[in-house]
Each structure stands twice: as structure tokens, then as C-alpha cells.
Amino acid sequence: MNLSKTRESRFENRDKRRKANLVLNILIGIVLVLIVVVASSLMMNSPKEQTQQDVSKNDKTTEAPASDNKKQTSDEDVKDKEKADSDKKDKSDSDSDKDKDTASDEEKSTDDPFKGAKVTEGGSSANVEKTIVNPNWKPVGTKQSGEHTATYDSSSQDWAEMLEALSYATGVSEDNMTVVWLGNNGSPQDAKGTIRAKDSGDKYSVAITWVDGKGWKPTKVEKLK
Questions:
Q1: Cβ(94)–Cβ(189) under 8 Å?
Q2: Distance separating alpha carbons of residues 140 and 147, to the nearest angstrom
Q3: Does the predicted TM-score (pTM) go above 0.85?
Q4: Can you tell me where the transmembrane regions are (predicted)?
Q5: Residue-wise pLDDT tens digits, 175-191
Q6: Beta bridge mates, 211
């Protein structure tokens, strides 16, 4: 009887130890799993990876100013191009105006007042060597406005424009011209002048007429003996 109880007691103790070992093994397994999980977590958040993340962030931060600089440079290039185009246009307009002025001056200086003119011997008096009438003559232009009245005052704008017409009709420049006489030619809008070239001594009698808004226009030149 005692032997049976002893065996039963040993069996119970052995079963308890086996259960205790099983629980211990399970706990050890759980601890190992936790260790692996913690180690994996630490490795994923290691300083190396954090450093890589920081470097990546810094790269992105550095790229932003580069983009801004590129945009700023692009805007400056556009402004520079617009300024260059504007300067080029202004220079072109200026050169065009100069060319027009030069062409106008050359036309006045090289225009032969007798080219295409009808020339006849004699004239309105025995003192006339020949008479010249040119259908190509045009008004010399005017700075005057409003209703025109011929003014024979040597300090007036009208007088200055009449001298310009006399010079245009004869080819004698104003600084080479001596005005012998200048006055009315029978109507308020008609005038007549007698001039002499200082260098050659040639004398001319010139009839001019007023054209509204366009100035004085030569109508006839008589070269005097």
C-alpha cells in the first residue's frame, strides 16, 4: 500500500516538473520573440537610417533654392531681352529718323531747281536774259498757321519763308544771297523778289505765290542781265 502511494507520488511530482518545464519553455520562447522584435525595431530605427533620412531631407532643402535661382535667372534673362529689344527698337527708330532727315537734306541740297524746267530766251523786260518755269516746283513748307497775310518785315517768319522759296527756285543759298528787293506782286498772296548771288554776281527775279498750309511756291524765275 505504501509502495503504491510512493509510486503515485513520484508520478505526480514528475508530471508537475514536466508541466513546469513546459511553462518555462513557453516563457523562454516568448522572451526570445520579444528580444527579436525589439532588436528588429532598433535596427530599423538605427542612426544610419536616420542619417540617410536627414541627408535626403537636406538634399530636398538644397534643391529648392536651386529652383528659385533658376526661376530668378529666367526672369532676369527675360527682362534683359526685353530691354535689349526696346533699346534696339529705339535705336532703329532713331536711325530711321536720322535717315529721313539726311535724305530730306540731301534732296534739298542736290535738287536742281532748273531740272525739268521750261527755259525761254528773254522775258518781261529788256533786262531779262531768260525765263525759267518749272512744273516740278513745290511749296517750301511753313511754320505759320491760321489765316495768312503776307508780311514784308525782315524779322518776320513770313519773310524768312519767302527767302527760302527764293533760294529754292534759284539754287542760290541764303548765306550767299543779297536781297535787292522783295515785295508785293499784285495780290495779297503773291510776292516777288530780286536777289544777287554774292560769289557769281548772277541776278534773279523770282515770282512766288502762297499755298494755304504749305507755304510759298515759286512760279517763275527770270535771270537778269
A1: no
A2: 18
A3: no
A4: 21-44
A5: 999 999 999 999 999 99
A6: 215
